[in-house]
Amino acid sequence: MKRVLSGIIVVFALLLLPQAAYAMHITEGILPPKWAIFWVVMIMPFVVIGTLKLKKNKREVPGFLPLVGLVGAAVFVFSCFPIPVVGLNGMATAHPAGTGMSAMLLGPFVSVVIAGIALFIQALFLAHGGLTTLGVNIFSMGVLGSFSGYFAFRLAQRMGLRLFWCGFAAGVVSDLFTYMGTSIGLGLLVLEGGESLPIAIMHSVKAMLEIFVVFMATSQGPLCVAEGIVVGFAISYVYKVRPGILQSLKVVKV
Amino acid sequence: MLKYFIVFVFTFSLIQAHALYAAEADNTINGIKDKEIIESETGKWTGIDVSIVGKYAEKYGHPPKDPYINTDQGDLLLFVFTFFGLIGGIIIGYNFRKLFIEGKGKRN
């Protein structure tokens, strides 16, 4: 145990050397402590319920655990995978979220847990996101991304669309809401100013909309459509090869 | 599990120590100083999270700072991305085979 601890201390000591670093998601240091705590409190109930649902489904649904492993690893890889996209801002890279797919297959609460684990590893080892911004990143990618994707999928099903288009809707909507969450996280920083509350709220909302429009007008817009297509094909493939899993998880009706 | 963790920590420390030593070294070849130029911060193919999130954070007076565990040093970031990409790929491949190749046609 002592050896393990000393190893950890050595690694941390070596890694804590200052150097400029920029990364994806909301980066380390952007949020003041009060906002960092606020976002952690916001996501905590979702993480707790998600963990309980994960344990319950593991016992009750056959094939659930390999599916969690597959989708979890896919979310991790998707959310740190810079894809070259040509948007209005020229040649840039943007990354998908993947939580639309995980919410659709595993349910939105389990998807929050998966997103949390993926974001935690990325913040810890990949200089991607941050530990103090973990709460807001889980909120945008995990909570907003998962729940919006899940409800978009259910709504598309109720409208009688084909399974591919239901998946497409989940992918597109979850990506849109993920970036809306990032815009909210950044826009709330305006509330730091010493203005009166109504004016500060107005400025904050304006900032959120501005950031969201900039995101969508640039590379993230085309990427939303690409993610929708990938999720559509993924759900169609699972239905074709193992429809039993989707029926057990109540994703599709028998 | 503990055994693998110790091996991982040892390998990681070794690589990190080597990277730091290399960064400190004077990379002079025949009087020409090797200078690192990070083009991606300003050039093509910049991540929109860097260009947009970073820009707005600075505008609102909260510029990004270094990660607590800073792997963005030289090729170390490339190593960790490749390492975790490989691990992710193995997990995806293993579970994909289990679910869709071996389990093809199963009712559940």
Detailed description of the structure:
The complex is a heterodimer of chains A (254) and B (108). Chain A has 254 residues and is mostly helical. Chain A has a single domain, classed as Arp2/3 complex 21 kDa subunit ARPC3, CATH 1.10.1760. Chain A has helices at 2-15, 33-60, 64-78, 99-106, 108-125, 134-158, 163-187, 197-217, 220-241, 243-248; strands at residues 83-87, 90-94. In chain A, strands 1-2 form a two-stranded antiparallel ribbon. In chain A, β1 and β2 form a beta hairpin. In chain A, α2 (33-60) packs across α5, α4 (99-106) crosses α6 and α6 (134-158) packs antiparallel against α7. Chain A is globular. Residues 10-24 of chain A have low confidence and may be disordered. Chain B has a domain at 67-108. Helix content of chain B is 56%, strand content 6%. In chain B, strands 1-2 form a two-stranded antiparallel sheet. Chain B has three helices and three strands. In chain B, β1 and β2 (32-33) form a beta hairpin. Chain B is mainly α and 108 residues long. At the A-B interface, α1, α3, β2, α5 and α8 of A face α1, β3, α2 and α3 of B.
